[in-house]
Amino acid sequence: MAQQRVEIEISDEGDYRVLRPQGDLDVYTVGSLRDALGQMISDKTPKIVVDLDGVPFMDSSGLGALMGGVRRMREIGGDLAVACTREQHLKLFTITGFGEGVSIAPTVEEAAKGFRL
Predict the structure, then answer these.
(1) Left, alpha or beta for 36 (phi > 0: left; psi -120 to 50: alpha)?
(2) Residues in a beta bridge with 77
(3) Using CA of residue 110, residue 11, residue 72, residue 97, what is the dihedral sign?
(4) Torsion over CA: 27, 99, 89, 24 (sign)
(5) CB-hemisphere CA count at 13 Å for 55?
(6) N or C terminus of the chain: which is more exposed, having fewer CB within 10 Å?
(7) E strands within the chain?
(8) What is residue 99's DSSP assignment?
């Protein structure tokens, strides 16, 4: 089966970039998110906010891609924050402890205030 894609919109917001996936983030589509994060890391983008409001469903592979993105960003001296208002994603972050070391806020602007740089 060919890998499905999730549409990803990227925008510059001053000193950080916003990555907005549109669609379900699961084992079939998560490669798109990993590729986009990998490209930003290669470009030495210091700060990234991932806006999950366009993602109705995310499974553990989506969470894994976010966790990997945070780790890789911090390895290059950057950081990754998450903008999210979707209750099921917020529950997943709480259950897994992902939210403990990562800025998660309802808006992109609020998430960006939490960068650990």
Answers:
(1) alpha
(2) none
(3) positive
(4) negative
(5) 31
(6) N
(7) 7-13, 16-22, 47-51, 79-83, 104-105
(8) G
